[in-house]
TrEMBL record:
PANTHER family: DIPEPTIDASE (PTHR10443:SF12), MICROSOMAL DIPEPTIDASE (PTHR10443)
Organism phylogeny: Bacteria, Bacillati, Actinomycetota, Actinomycetes, Kitasatosporales
Compositionally biased tracts (Acidic residues): 1-10
Stored InterPro entries: Metal_Hydrolase, Pept_M19
Residue ranges with Low complexity bias: 27-43
TM region positions: none
GO molecular function annotations of the record: metallodipeptidase activity
Protein name: Membrane dipeptidase
Stored Gene3D superfamilies: Metal-dependent hydrolases (3.20.20.140)
Amino acid sequence: MADLHDDEDIPLASGGAAGDSEEGAEGAESAEGAEGPRPGAPAPELRARALLTAHPVADGHSGLPWALSQLTWYDLELGDRALETDLPRLREGAVGAMFWSLRVPEAYVGDRAVSATLGLIDLAECVVREHPEGLRLAHTASHTADARSHGRIACLLGPAGAPAIGDSLGTLRALHKLGVRSLTLSGTRWAGERGLSRFGEEVVREMNRLGVLADLSGSSPDTVRHTLAVSKAPVLFSRSAAAALTEHPDNVPDELLAALRGNKGLCLVPCTAAQTGPALRDVADHLDHVRRVAGPECVGISGMYDTESALPDGLQDTSRYPQLIAELLDRDWSESDVSLLTWGNVQRVLREADFTARAAQLRRPPSTATLERLDA
């Protein structure tokens, strides 16, 4: 399915001149996101780097905004040992897009959660503006593809935590206007152990109408099932591995991974020792399992870098993705399945969320529902 090109324009970073569009697909082949092979690199890594040149990594969960908010100084071009992400390592790791998490500490509730999320959005915009040769904000699949074709790394805002909307659909719409494209449903009164409340159902419908993806990582099984029943758009697990391999509150049982196939959603397997295991091969085991149960169209990667999570050996920073892809190729993953894992699945989900939103906007106006009226 072709990328959309009639989306509402967003301002381009100052480093991207209008003439850059002439690069087209050729620009993607020479994009800054893929460095050459390391001297003496094994054959699978050479294949991995060649594949990543055409199909770079779309990282489903980066903690960079919050990590940067805790520093007094940073320069992503020069790099910083306090971070696991910078532009040189992103390029070496062939990263083409990142979802920048806007989640704030669980202790932040009410107005504090809302204001802290707004602060992270402002910081993210400043970071992109300060690094125009490397980064570009993106809101849709076509923006993401365009950033890649110009040799920039696309930065999508989200997931934000649901407390950031303050139980207000108006605030949800305001965050969407600011660029937020996914929302984690856990941690609210309307998405709990028993599933979605009536207001929770309305939140999901309004997210569908806007094109905001529902992130179900950390949600109860009943909330997952309920959301899958209500949502007309694909859903995400932004940081979830296979519960069958590793017991962890955020990992997903096979029953729900199988249900994800029908929704055409996406389980983004995190590179964290707690959820997948202590080594790169353990992450590959989880990717194998999710691909087998949910299907190759429903699996992706979440680096979870700069989230203070312990990282597996071999995946210590964003430069290590080629080694992970080499491991998958060595396990006889087809190049087609790898290209879906790294880039294609995220692009498809973004496109389908946008198509769903356009159709929903023709059917219904913005919702005026409130928590007090529906869940009294």
